[in-house]
């Protein structure tokens, strides 16, 4: 438990909050933090904030506070911001009436992350809880405060400002107390983000990625062997390896996956389970060999993230979380191979090095790459890798002809020899007379002789057969005698006899069968007799006693022909008895049925499964409904209904009483409608005639409505907030698409006055040059006027004679808008099949071929020698646009909460957690 004394700033904020909530708490200006709960202790009642359950409530608390245990908060901005996080978390959850937090969960997570980054704590704020992680281990809110208090170095003024530069928590200027504000919206002092803000600098959403690994053939050069790989490891379970990236020649890093826990990926050839994955931290890409291949062979899969560093690091973390510093003797495997699971134990390095002298150069190369690639444990590699290098140097020095590995059986260990020795059959130390008269022996003696002679030579085989014959005769005589008196045996004796016969190994099954058949016959007769007696005895017994007998008959192993008539008889008895008991139960109902009694009687009725209780249920519900309506009326009659606050309190109190929705809803609707009428009248008084208001009067009216206590459906800023959020997301996406298209065109063009790239954020801020702005306005208000509200152009190709934007085509993420002297129209991106150039005598140019076969020529001012590269770049870019996931659509973005999450980066659909299990994206809150 941690005790903190609030400074002046925190006092003002939390006192204002207490007044806003209208709770009866006289706070003593102390914070108590215990586990995941923040407590504001008071003289009688205290205010509780529970991070696990999202509950905000008051309660009595018996707490002894000693002055020496209290830590005073003095100029600690980090601690102040961490305590203030409580307001924004519970405000976003909607547990603080009137507190409006406009940011979504992903923005709040980034904000909280920027606050706690100094203590290396990762916050996870969701709609159902608020958790904290340190080094990927779950910690409590109390641990967070403890880490802040135990920082080794105090925070300087400059660092405080830097740490809090992105944070706009309530300050002493933000929070004031006023007599006429009972539910003041603290959250409306949080300014919603504009296009100029970059609250997600640390985590950019980026463009989408197809997470399918593609086949390539590349050449991987080796570098010098790394002696101490831990000193230069990349992190996330990736360690340096002796290969260079084929693109940038930087060192590669490797992560290995334990046998049986290989990581699945999607490739062009289907699902593959990774035993090892390589990455280049410079190129933002991943490599892995194809199944049954080594990286050195160059036959690999690759996954590239280009300049999207955030996406690369997320996937690096996802792969690293599943990886370990271990060995895996397997190659990568296709799903079918992986499901077959060959558990054959591989040869160890120690065994292989026993035959190293006869190994060929090719086999030495393969062995070396396996050692580098984690096929063998690190400790073994550290011992044998220098030996391998030395052996290769010796072979090269003498130019010795390589020989293949010689497969020899390893020498047997002492343990194996001892096992073999103990498994050798030992002859009995005592001689047995093979010619004695076995007919005089008892069955037990004969069994003993068999065990002694088992595994003997030919001389004993005839004796063994004689003993078996005599044993069978003895056993048959024994069991014939038992069967003769079987009718006088008890059920237990019969069961024991049956088990004994079944366990006789020397007696053939054909000879056991008559005995077992006779015993089973007697047992079934006894069981049938017993069950019939129990069924007859059920007459006059209770419903539940009959139910137990029915269960016993169903579980018994008597034939179905015996069970069926007994069950039919008992079913009739159950129904007759059940109807009588239900009628009696209903007759004992009290006239005034409270909720607990109603539930108890209903539960009892449901126990009678063979009785039609529908009429009784209706009778019970009708009686309870009348009583409940009387209770609701009495509750309302006792309440104060004079003003809006009283009605609102009555509305909430009624919902907490546990009344059925059917009876309660009409009363709630009436109260809601009354509050709605009051709020409408109040708003009309604030702004009786909008058209007659001056600008200043309009601002004042908006402020009053925002700060006033009104029903949520009468607040008009929801669409505005949504518009800001969608505008920012789609503008960011447009700018990133522009950068991608520019990057793909750069190898072919440097500057073309007919090509225009639309920078959405720059346009929103009004930073476009006048000439460029006029050009885009003409295009977007002309032949591309049908574009959606959040559909921004990426690229415009102007084909007009005077470069005025009248003709050409506009490429957006969803459509191509085109216009020329002879034709114009709109082509949906998803309907495009191919982009190709034609250089014939007629109909030459760049053509769009739609899926339905229709061909459309794009208006384009570009020399014919450049058509080929342009059609290739444009076609590839449209293919990429067609991969856009559902999560980028406006209909999906407009919703803040989703039952099934569609990853914003790769489109993978999942339900649990906030991190995409396919690409690692953390932008799917």
From TrEMBL:
Basic and acidic residues bias spans: 405-420
Disordered: annotated span: 157-193, 399-430
Biased composition (Polar residues): 165-187
Protein name: Uncharacterized protein
Native species: Velocimicrobium porci
């Amino acid at each position: 438990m941690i005790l903190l004394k609030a400074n002046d700033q925190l006092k003002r904020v939390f006192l204002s909050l207490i007044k806003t909530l209208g709770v009866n708490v006289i706070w003593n200006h102390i914070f108590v933090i215990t586990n995941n709960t923040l407590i504001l202790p008071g003289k009688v009642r205290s205010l509780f904030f529970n991070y696990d359950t999202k509950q905000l409530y008051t309660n009595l608390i018996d707490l002894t506070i000693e002055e020496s245990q209290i830590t005073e908060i003095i100029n600690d901005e980090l601690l102040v911001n961490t305590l203030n996080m409580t307001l924004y978390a519970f405000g976003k959850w909607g547990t603080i009436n009137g507190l409006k937090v406009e940011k979504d969960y992903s923005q709040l997570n980034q904000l909280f992350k920027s606050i706690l980054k100094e203590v290396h704590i990762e916050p996870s704020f969701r709609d159902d809880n608020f958790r904290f992680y340190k080094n990927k281990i779950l910690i409590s809110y109390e641990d967070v405060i403890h880490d802040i208090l135990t920082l080794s170095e105090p925070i300087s003024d400059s660092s405080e400002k830097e740490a809090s530069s992105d944070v706009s928590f309530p300050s002493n200027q933000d929070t004031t107390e006023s007599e006429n504000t009972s539910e003041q919206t603290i959250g409306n002092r949080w300014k919603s983000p504009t296009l100029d803000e970059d609250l997600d600098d640390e985590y950019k959403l980026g463009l989408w990625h197809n997470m399918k690994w593609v086949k390539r053939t590349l050449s991987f050069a080796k570098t010098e062997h790394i002696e101490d790989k831990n000193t230069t490891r990349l992190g996330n379970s990736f360690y340096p390896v002796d290969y260079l990236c084929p693109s940038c020649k930087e060192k590669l890093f490797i992560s290995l996956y334990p046998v049986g826990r290989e990581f699945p990926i999607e490739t062009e050839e289907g699902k593959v389970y990774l035993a090892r994955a390589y990455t280049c931290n410079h190129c933002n890409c991943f490599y892995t060999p194809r199944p049954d291949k080594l990286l050195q062979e160059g036959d690999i899969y690759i996954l590239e993230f280009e300049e999207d560093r955030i996406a690369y690091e997320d996937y690096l973390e996802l792969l690293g979380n599943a990886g370990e510093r271990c060995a895996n003797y397997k190659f990568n495997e296709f799903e079918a191979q992986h499901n077959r699971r060959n558990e054959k134990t591989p040869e160890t390095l120690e065994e292989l090095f026993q035959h190293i002298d006869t190994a060929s150069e090719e086999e030495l190369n393969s062995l070396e790459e396996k050692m580098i690639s984690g096929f063998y444990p690190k400790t073994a590699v550290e011992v044998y890798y220098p030996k391998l290098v030395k052996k290769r140097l010796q072979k090269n020095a003498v130019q010795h002809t390589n020989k293949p590995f010689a497969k020899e059986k390893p020498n047997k260990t002492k343990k194996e020899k001892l096992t073999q020795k103990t498994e050798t059959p030992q002859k009995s130390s005592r001689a047995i007379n093979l010619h004695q008269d076995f007919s005089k022996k008892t069955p037990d003696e004969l069994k003993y002789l068999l065990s002694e002679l088992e595994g003997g030579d030919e001389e004993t085989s005839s004796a063994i057969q004689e003993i078996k014959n005599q044993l069978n005769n003895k056993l048959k005589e024994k069991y014939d005698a038992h069967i003769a008196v079987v009718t006088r045996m008890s059920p237990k004796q019969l069961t024991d006899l049956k088990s004994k016969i079944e366990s006789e190994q020397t007696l053939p099954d054909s000879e056991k069968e008559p005995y077992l058949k006779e015993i089973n016959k007697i047992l079934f007769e006894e069981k049938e007799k017993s069950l019939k007696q129990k069924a007859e005895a059920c007459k006059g017994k209770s419903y539940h006693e009959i139910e137990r007998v029915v269960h016993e008959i169903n579980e018994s192993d008597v034939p179905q022909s015996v069970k069926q008539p007994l069950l039919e008889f008992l079913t009739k008895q159950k129904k007759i008895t059940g109807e009588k008991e239900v009628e009696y139960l209903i007759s004992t109902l009290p006239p005034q049925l409270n909720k607990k009694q109603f539930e108890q009687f209903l539960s009892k009725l449901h126990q009678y499964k063979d009785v039609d209780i529908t009429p009784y249920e209706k009778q019970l519900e009708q009686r309870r409904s009348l009583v409940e309506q009387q209770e609701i009326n009495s509750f309302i009659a006792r309440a104060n209904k004079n003003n809006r606050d009283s009605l609102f309190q009555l509305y909430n109190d009624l919902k907490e009483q546990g009344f059925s929705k059917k009876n309660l809803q009409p009363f709630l609707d009436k109260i809601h409608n009354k509050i709605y009428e009051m709020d409408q009248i109040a708003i009309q008084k604030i702004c009786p005639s909008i058209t007659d208001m001056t600008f200043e009067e309009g601002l004042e009216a908006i402020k009053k409505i925002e700060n006033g206590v009104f029903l949520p459906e009468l607040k008009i800023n929801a669409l505005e907030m949504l518009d800001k959020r969608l505008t920012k997301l789609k503008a960011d996406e447009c700018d990133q698409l522009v950068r991608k298209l520019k990057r793909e065109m750069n190898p072919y063009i440097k500057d073309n006055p007919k090509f225009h790239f639309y920078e959405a954020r720059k346009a929103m801020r009004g930073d476009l040059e006048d000439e460029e702005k006029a050009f885009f306005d003409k295009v977007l208000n002309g032949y591309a006027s049908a574009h959606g509200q959040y559909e921004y152009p990426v690229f415009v190709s102007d084909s007009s004679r005077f470069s005025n934007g009248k003709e050409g085509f506009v490429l957006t993420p969803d459509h191509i808008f085109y216009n020329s002297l002879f034709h114009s129209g709109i082509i949906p991106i998803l309907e495009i099949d191919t982009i190709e150039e034609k250089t014939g005598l007629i109909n030459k140019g760049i053509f769009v071929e739609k899926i339905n076969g229709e061909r459309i020529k794009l208006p384009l001012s570009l020399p014919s020698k450049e058509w080929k590269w342009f059609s290739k770049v444009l076609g590839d870019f449209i293919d990429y646009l067609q991969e856009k996931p559902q999560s980028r659509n406006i209909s999906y973005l407009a919703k803040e909460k989703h039952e099934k999450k569609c990853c914003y980066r790769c489109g993978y659909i999942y339900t649990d957690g906030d991190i995409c299990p396919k690409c690692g994206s953390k932008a799917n809150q």
